[in-house]
Amino acid sequence: MKLTYLGTGAAEGWPALFCNCKNCQEAARLGGRNIRTRSQSLINTDLLIDLPPDTYYHKLMSGIDFSAVKYLFVTHWHMDHFYPQELTVRGSIYSHRMTSPELDIYCAAGTKALFDQVSWEANKETMETLHFHILKPFEPVHPGDYTVTPLPANHMHELKDGQPFIYLIEHQGQRILYAHDTGIFYPEVWDFLEKSGHINLVSLDGTCGTHQVGPESGHMGLPDDREVRARLIESGVCDDSTRFILNHFSHNGGMLYDEMIRRAGNDFTVSYDGMEIVI
């Protein structure tokens, strides 16, 4: 599998749109890998994770053919992960000669409900190409030759019916655990993962930088990530061959790219916009 990190920032981006803090000013001054757009990733060429407001910018910067995406998995419906209006211009007079005219969208019921609120902007031709599939925790789905299992994320605590997900993605014998916008995993998620078999790549939430925030936060910092990494290795589902990635960073975490590299050491690769990893 090839995993491309299109955006690696938290909700506000980095530098944040309306912010003049020292972390944002320094990121703007340094540029390069310190610039982080809203979170989005692509697996191979056809499975997209999340649809943030920065998707169009990701197309401009990467040259990726987003019309080739066949499967969209939405982690949750916070605005930095799902900008539903973007789907209203997929097809019809807005998008010609698409590589894959049909799009299967996998998400929670609340995510679909948010799309329904804005779908009046889409015409009938566009709506007929969008196929929603409502996910249930721990029940795998099988788009194409992938197997994707949605697991409850420790996040979105303000909404009892929010149902955010992290994903275990399998393809041709390889497994990726994509775990962002989550705190330390719920006990039932640990039970599932520790019986899941070998995981080749684990992508963990780095929102809080080097701060330890514990299981109630809805996000993680580097000490929490180390705790998760240690338990996955101890359980036997990860080993020395597993790639561990830190991703989804906020200016409130305080660590610019080079400093985060130093703090992460050999345990983690620190993501940046445009980073590609092949497993």
Automatic annotation (TrEMBL):
Q: Pfam families in the record, alphabetically? A: Lactamase_B_2
Membrane-traversing stretches: none
Domain Metallo-beta-lactamase: where? Answer: 63-222
Under InterPro entries, the record lists: Metallo-B-lactamas (IPR001279), RibonucZ/Hydroxyglut_hydro (IPR036866)
In terms of PANTHER family, this protein maps to: HYDROLASE C777.06C-RELATED, HYDROLASE C777.06C-RELATED-RELATED
Its protein name is Metallo-beta-lactamase domain-containing protein
Supply the source organism for this entry: Candidatus Faecivivens stercoripullorum
Q: What is the lineage of its organism?
A: Bacteria, Bacillati, Bacillota, Clostridia, Eubacteriales
